[in-house]
């Protein structure tokens, strides 16, 4: 029973909604609590319409995190694959992400231009991406670092940047991939000097000071017999995630026909999933091959 009007609760709610509807149709506003005004302190952070919304995450103090968890230098493939697993989870769990790009301890997520997810509020985009990514990092850690316990909870900062044109978005992604190349070339030589030539970090840093890309390639080739272009693509190019149709094969118990009863059969169904590529995204070829990514109404 409802305490105030003494009818069964289910009926009472029905009556309430009828009264509410009448009030609204008469243009009568419901009384607000005197505290309601604090809502006005909330800032409007709606992302400008028709812009690409990019959320970039970056590991908090991952230099220390990598040390404590014995990451391989210059690249730890377990850590990079875990980052990508987290990014795939973000794309699958959240709405409207058309492409993601990651390298080192960072990942960028691009929401489609016309996304109206959470009314385009920047704080919603950013916090959903960051929290989903961070919880996935902890959740999936053990699948990638079987012998290495997670010693403390990692964190990620996030930022939202709007890009008004396809060109500015492509330039943004090119900037991140160029950054991947510059850092990876440096780190590959830096760690070779330490691990193979026995230099201290300070000495390796000194040796590389003022060198250009060609000089670093030459050191790798002449001193360590390493052709930088043969280093793994994932390290040199980072990881791009785009939606692709994937055939999923599952085994299912089959009911009919009778002679096959109880037998397991492979069933194929097509699903759209975020699939990783380690390719160049600076040139036009990638965008020509995947025009749907930048499609206005994608
Ligand atoms: Mg970082």
From TrEMBL:
<keyword id="KW-0342">GTP-binding</keyword>
<feature type="binding site">
    <location>
        <begin position="104"/>
        <end position="105"/>
    </location>
    <ligand>
        <name>GTP</name>
    </ligand>
</feature>
<dbReference type="GO" id="GO:0005525">
    <property type="term" value="F:GTP binding"/>
</dbReference>
<dbReference type="Pfam" id="PF04446">
    <property type="entry name" value="Thg1"/>
</dbReference>
<keyword id="KW-0808">Transferase</keyword>
<keyword id="KW-0548">Nucleotidyltransferase</keyword>
<dbReference type="GO" id="GO:0006400">
    <property type="term" value="P:tRNA modification"/>
</dbReference>
<dbReference type="InterPro" id="IPR025845">
    <property type="entry name" value="Thg1_C_dom"/>
</dbReference>
<keyword id="KW-0819">tRNA processing</keyword>
<feature type="binding site">
    <location>
        <begin position="58"/>
        <end position="63"/>
    </location>
    <ligand>
        <name>GTP</name>
    </ligand>
</feature>
<comment type="similarity">
    <text>Belongs to the tRNA(His) guanylyltransferase family.</text>
</comment>
<keyword id="KW-0460">Magnesium</keyword>
<protein>
    <recommendedName>
        <fullName>tRNA(His) guanylyltransferase</fullName>
        <ecNumber>2.7.7.79</ecNumber>
    </recommendedName>
</protein>
<keyword id="KW-0479">Metal-binding</keyword>
<feature type="binding site">
    <location>
        <position position="59"/>
    </location>
    <ligand>
        <name>Mg(2+) 1</name>
    </ligand>
</feature>
<dbReference type="InterPro" id="IPR024956">
    <property type="entry name" value="tRNAHis_GuaTrfase_cat"/>
</dbReference>
<comment type="function">
    <text>Adds a GMP to the 5'-end of tRNA(His) after transcription and RNase P cleavage. This step is essential for proper recognition of the tRNA and for the fidelity of protein synthesis. Also functions as a guanyl-nucleotide exchange factor/GEF for the MFN1 and MFN2 mitofusins thereby regulating mitochondrial fusion. By regulating both mitochondrial dynamics and bioenergetic function, it contributes to cell survival following oxidative stress.</text>
</comment>
<comment type="subunit">
    <text>Homotetramer. Interacts with MFN1 and MFN2; functions as a guanyl-nucleotide exchange factor/GEF for MFN2 and also probably MFN1.</text>
</comment>
<dbReference type="InterPro" id="IPR007537">
    <property type="entry name" value="tRNAHis_GuaTrfase_Thg1"/>
</dbReference>
<feature type="binding site">
    <location>
        <position position="58"/>
    </location>
    <ligand>
        <name>Mg(2+) 1</name>
    </ligand>
</feature>
<feature type="domain" description="Thg1 C-terminal">
    <location>
        <begin position="167"/>
        <end position="283"/>
    </location>
</feature>
<dbReference type="GO" id="GO:0000287">
    <property type="term" value="F:magnesium ion binding"/>
</dbReference>
<feature type="binding site">
    <location>
        <position position="105"/>
    </location>
    <ligand>
        <name>Mg(2+) 1</name>
    </ligand>
</feature>
<dbReference type="GO" id="GO:0008193">
    <property type="term" value="F:tRNA guanylyltransferase activity"/>
</dbReference>
<feature type="binding site">
    <location>
        <position position="58"/>
    </location>
    <ligand>
        <name>Mg(2+) 2</name>
    </ligand>
</feature>
<keyword id="KW-0547">Nucleotide-binding</keyword>
<feature type="domain" description="tRNAHis guanylyltransferase catalytic">
    <location>
        <begin position="35"/>
        <end position="164"/>
    </location>
</feature>
<dbReference type="Pfam" id="PF14413">
    <property type="entry name" value="Thg1C"/>
</dbReference>
<dbReference type="InterPro" id="IPR038469">
    <property type="entry name" value="tRNAHis_GuaTrfase_Thg1_sf"/>
</dbReference>
<feature type="binding site">
    <location>
        <position position="105"/>
    </location>
    <ligand>
        <name>Mg(2+) 2</name>
    </ligand>
</feature>
């Amino acid at each position: 029973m409802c305490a105030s009007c003494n009818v069964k609760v289910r009926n009472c709610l029905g009556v309430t909604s009828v009264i509410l509807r009448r009030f609204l149709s008469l243009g009568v506003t419901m009384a607000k609590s005197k505290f309601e005004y604090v809502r006005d302190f909330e800032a409007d952070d709606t992302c400008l319409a028709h812009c690409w919304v990019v959320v970039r995450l970056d590991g908090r103090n991952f230099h220390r995190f990598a040390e404590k968890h014995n990451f391989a230098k210059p690249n730890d493939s377990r850590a990079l694959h875990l980052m990508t697993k987290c990014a795939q989870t973000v794309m699958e769990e959240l709405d409207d992400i058309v492409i993601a790009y990651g390298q080192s301890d960072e990942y960028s997520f691009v929401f489609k231009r016309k996304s109206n997810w959470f009314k385009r509020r920047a704080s919603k985009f950013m916090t959903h991406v960051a929290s989903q990514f961070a919880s996935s990092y902890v959740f999936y850690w053990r699948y990638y670092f079987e012998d290495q316990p997670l010693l403390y909870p990692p964190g990620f900062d996030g930022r939202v940047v709007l890009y008004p044109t396809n060109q500015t978005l492509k330039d943004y992604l090119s900037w991140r991939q160029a950054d991947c190349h510059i850092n990876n070339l440096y780190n590959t030589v830096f760690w070779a000097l330490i691990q193979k030539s026995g230099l201290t970090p300070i000495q390796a840093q000194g040796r590389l000071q003022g060198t250009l890309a060609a000089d670093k390639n030459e050191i790798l080739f002449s001193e360590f017999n390493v052709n930088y272009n043969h280093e793994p693509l994932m390290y040199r190019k980072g990881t791009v995630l785009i939606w692709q149709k994937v055939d999923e094969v599952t085994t299912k118990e089959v009911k009919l026909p009778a002679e096959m009863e109880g037998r397991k059969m492979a069933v194929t169904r097509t699903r759209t999933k975020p699939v990783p590529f380690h390719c160049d995204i600076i040139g036009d070829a990638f965008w020509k091959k995947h025009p749907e990514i930048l499609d206005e109404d994608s």
